[in-house]
Specification:
Blueprint lengths: L5 H15 L15 H10 L8 H9 L2 H4 L4 H8 L1 H9 L8 H11 L5 H20 L7 H17 L5 H11 L4
Helix pairs in contact: 1-3, 2-3, 2-8, 3-6, 5-6, 7-9, 8-9, 8-10
The protein binds zinc ion.
Zinc ion (ZN) binds next to loops.
Length: 178
Amino acid sequence: MTTQSPTVALLGAVMFAAERHRNQRRKDAEATPYINHPIALAHLLAPPGGIADVTLLQAAILHDTIEDTETTAAELSARFGDDVTRIVLEVTDDKTLPKPRRKQLQIEHAPHKSRGAALVKLADKTCNLLDVASSPPADWPLSRRQAYFDWAKQVVDALPRVNDALLSAFDQAYAARP
Ligand code: ZN
């Protein structure tokens, strides 16, 4: 971890996430490969967000590996270190809870997020709104798409204010509310 160059460390995270998400697809009608989502998220943090910290970018790439694959926190710690793992854990929902409760908890926990977790969360919600606006899941009626936008905004409004450029990227995405 520490002996690698930042570029190699970041590519290692991309490789790992691509391997873990390899059989997953996004919910859009075209079933886009899942890995496109974490890559888009990290890319949003980098140019508009101005984030060059490799720990944060690795956490962005890996942010769904614990929640959506068999990956454990211990495994991430061993490969990418505790700082990356802490951020990933902070943005990981407890999947033993029913979905409405998980969504409510995202709003309630938002004010207590660390800077790193708040950045990843903000970029995650922005990317998801862009996806729902441009290529929504085929079975989502208008009301569900609208509810998704409103919930994402509630989460983002409750986050600590960490990055104005990213916040305007979110506002721009939210402006396309169906
Ligand atoms: Zn995500």
